[in-house]
Amino acid sequence: MAQFGFESDIHNILKLDMPITNAPMARWQRKASASTCNSANTSVLSPSKSANRSVSMSRTPGKTPGKNGKTQCTPSKVGGDRFIPSRNNKQMEVATYLLSKENEPVNETNEPAQKESQKAWSVTLNGYDVEKAKILHLGGKPLNAPEGYQNNLKVLYSQAPTPVSIKKSRYISTVPHRILDAPDLRNDFYLNLMDWGRQNLLAVALEDTVYLWDAAKGEITLLMKVEQEEDYICSVSWSKEGNFLAIGTSDCKVQLWDVEHQKRLRTMASHTARVGSLSWNDYILSSGSRSGHIHQHDVRVADHHIFTLNGHSQEVCGLTWSPDGRYLASGGNDNMVYVWPGVQEGNGNQQTAVQSFSEHQGAVKALAWCPWQQNILASGGGTSDRHIRIWNVNSGSCISSWDTNSQISSLVFAPNYKELVSGHGFAHDSIVIWKYPSLTKVAELSGHQGRVLNLTLSPDGSTVASVAADETVRLWKSFEKDPVKQKTKSTSSSIIHQPIR
């Protein structure tokens, strides 16, 4: 029996028809309560005061309902109260004005007066004219802001081109403008086998022969050939006017040629070893030989040898006069750089160097004077050094030094863009354009399959020519003053192969 009594209790507990004491109010009960509350509120108002009813319902009551014994109706908090944002009175007035303006009919007769009135309203309400406060203006000239109005974004919608937008970027081609074949070119780091004269003639020495290439006409001329088979050309250098060419040979001689008439004027013999470097200063021709001596020649007189400069202990492989003719810079295989005074400042055969620089750890063949700073000299070291060094010859100080990680065979200043160009051998075999004086790399021109031996600049300064051990002469048109935008061309169409013989 006890078992049946327990089951009966469980059955009674599980029945759902019993009242639930703690359950929430049913929905029908909530509706009845809300209708009772609304009827109580409406009964307070008399039917004759309908206007008061609309006012009272649109405004928030000042007192809380339910106080002083009256019925209190608590609104349901399910979902929260409605959010009404607060707006500035001026914004509401502007919005009302703009809405009313759109709905008004257009009256053409009173249009000027209306525009003036609208402008006055706009300035009064906003502080500026609404018609002119546009971010994008699609037609006409750009609008000027009123006096005293500050706008940090006016550059974004101005139609006037800014200096940045009209600035043209410089294009440097990575392929040569022209390639000339140079067979039998002697692969010797210490020789100077190419020079570009003022008459726009490029002189190139190929073993025992000197050829001239006319850059304007594209014509090639055989100028001379050494008499002995075992001899070879060691250096070439144009005079200042470009009408005479000096040629140094392996038989210790210097030949002077009249290019216009293709005639040898004289042969000057004073050295005891091959002449690997030459440089002109008006009528003075300087020649450096493997013996380490530098001879000064006055080509106007029969006794041409004026005096000898003694300083280098090994071959003189770099020689160049400053643009103003005050100094002669020489570099040698003894890792030394000397700066010598001009001939007019010398004391006969007892000339001494003005400056001597011993910081390089390799042979110094690459030398270049700065055209726009005539007291600045750039020098480059060989495989053991690989540094470009900038010198102030007046103070004797090294202004800057930069490791190029490659043998430096030649240096040329490009005045059109105030840049420095370097030719490299082991191990990059390339041409690098540097910004002066920061020595930041502007571009690297690759294409040679052997070490670059010499660089020379065209008379107008727009093109640099490079000759390398791969027996080619490449012309790089990288320094035009006003470059013209050209269509993209393939490498095969932009390179013109032309034999130099």
Automatic annotation (TrEMBL):
- GO terms of molecular function: anaphase-promoting complex binding; ubiquitin ligase activator activity
Note the Gene3D superfamilies from the entry: YVTN repeat-like/Quinoprotein amine dehydrogenase
Chain positions of WD repeats:
226-267, 309-340, 382-401, 445-477
UniProt entry keywords in alphabetical sequence: Cell cycle, Cell division, Repeat, WD repeat
Cite the record's Low complexity compositional bias ranges. 32-43
- Any single GO BP term: cell division
Provide the CDC20/Fizzy WD40 domain boundaries.
180-476
Pfam families, A to Z: WD40_CDC20-Fz
Which CDD domains did the record assign?
WD40
The UniProt entry, under PROSITE patterns, shows: WD_REPEATS_1, WD_REPEATS_2, WD_REPEATS_REGION
A Gene Ontology cellular-component term: anaphase-promoting complex
Per the record, the domain of life is: Eukaryota
- Annotated region Disordered: the residues are 32-85
Q: Where is the composition biased (Polar residues)?
A: 44-61
Q: Which protein family is it in? A: Belongs to the WD repeat CDC20/Fizzy family.
- Name of protein: Cell division cycle protein 20 homolog
Species for this entry: Chanos chanos
Its gene is: cdc20
